[in-house]
Amino acid sequence: MAAVRDGHGTVTAIIVAVTDITQRKATADALQQSEERHRIISEVISDYVYTSNGCEDSTMRTRWVSGAFEQITGYTIDEIREIGGWLNIIDPIDLIAMTESMLDCTVGQNKVFEYRIITKSGETRWLRDHVRLSNPTQQPELLRLYGAVQDITERKQAEAMLDQYRHIVAATADMIAMIDCAGIYVYANDAYLRRSGRSYEQLIGHSVAEVMGQQTFDGLIQERLQRCLQGETVQYRTWLDLAGAGQRFLDATYIPYHNENGDIVGVLISARDITDLKQMTDELQASEARYRLLADHAQDIIFQYQLQPELCCLYVSPSIEGILGYPAEAFYTDPWLYYSICDTETQRFLEAGLMGSTDTYPATAVLRMRHCDGHYVWMEQHVRITTDADGRAAMIQGISRDVTERKQMQEALQQSKERYRLVSEIISDYAYSFEVNADGSLTLEWTTESSFQRVTGFTCTELEQRGGWASLIYPEDIPVAQNDSSGSLRASRIRANFAL
């Protein structure tokens, strides 16, 4: 629009030129709608999108950002501009590689970058960036960088954890494998490959029947795999001949493997080689069987009692019935029976061990126990007490032998000696008995002390303090006494006279 004026400056006419911009207007509106649709779609498929413009100094300046940019990075777009652009929040570990990759980008090329950023709060997060360079006019200031970013931190953490699990599974000594529903191997760790005697290529894609042998598969594995594929966790132990390890005893577990929909799509196999444990267990059982065989047929009573946390009979040999009249089963039923059939003095003695006074409890003792029919039996007991971590008596085990006959003979001998002593005091001034030692020396065993003191004036204790019996002999008669002593060792009886 322009005004026409005369020589005096007065507007005499107006010239109007009109241009039809309907098409341009429609194009601009369409472009705006397209950009809006692109923004909306990008926000749906990405966490945030951005556009950067080229500058005359060949740098890029962020034009706009939408979506969760501030939520992920902690920065607003203005704060990003203030610190010099979004490249300045990339982790230094990834910055050089990221910059070099950006410089390699060409117009019209789509590229994907994965890198870490340092958020405003100092947290490290992983991003996946889909970028495209556009420059229809080839002018640097019209260069456009379009990007769509996804926060993949959780995925990276899961991948790191999964990688850690892979290393653990690969390093474990247990045999671990996975098969599909058709019984085909889809995974195996190094231990499984090594013991099966196969490489990865020789195992993966092959059937269990092929690897383990058809006979082993039919008789041992197939039925258990079918149960597992129906949802049951199957555990069993068996001997198995492995190509890479020989005859081994395995503790095997089959676990159903489910997909994300909960359907069973395979079986996870875990097998542990427990051959050494099996052999030790078998040896222990054989040893225990031999011990029990000896204990069950021993004439002496063999017993084992648990003292903590409560009294419990763990074992008592059948010989107890022949010695004390009670069947072995009675002691299992009533753990206190062994204690209750002891006389009062013996019970007090046993309490030292039962109550935990292990320091004062002797390893060997002679006890008196009541037979089932009422009479008493003398028992020589040899025991060992085991203590717990607190030093309390936790277990007592031992052997008891019937010494009633020996005890009776000892009492009869003592009575005989006493009778002889009394008779000697009646018919003699005093009597004595010497024990002949291995070296030929003599040790006073006993004497009729009252008559000896009456004749000599010394007690036996005083005599020992003086140097023994020879110290009383008159010096001139010592040779006579020595000859008579030597003679007494060669004869059953001798008579001698000498002065004291």
How would you describe the overall organization of this protein?
There is one protein chain. The strands form 5 sheets. A 5-stranded antiparallel beta sheet has the order 4-3-7-6-5, sandwiched between helices. The protein has a 5-stranded antiparallel beta sheet with strand order 9-8-12-11-10, with helices on both faces. A 5-stranded antiparallel beta sheet has the order 14-13-17-16-15, sandwiched between helices. The chain has 18 helices and 19 strands. The protein is α+β, with helices and mostly antiparallel strands. A hairpin with a 5-residue loop joins strand 1 and strand 2.
Distance between the termini: 172 Å
Helix amount, in percent?
Answer: 25-40%
The CATH class designation of the largest domain is Alpha Beta
Shape: elongated
For the report, how would you describe the main beta sheet?
5 strands, antiparallel
Give the count of helical stretches: 18
For this structure, what is the CATH homologous superfamily of the largest domain?
PAS domain
CATH fold description of the largest domain: Beta-Lactamase
* Assembly of the depicted chains: single chain
**Strand arrangement, largest sheet?**
4-3-7-6-5
Total domain units: 4
Unreliable stretches, pLDDT < 50, 5 or more residues? 491-500
**Which structural class matches the secondary elements?**
alpha+beta
| Rg of Cα set | 53 Å
Beta fraction of the residues?
25-35%
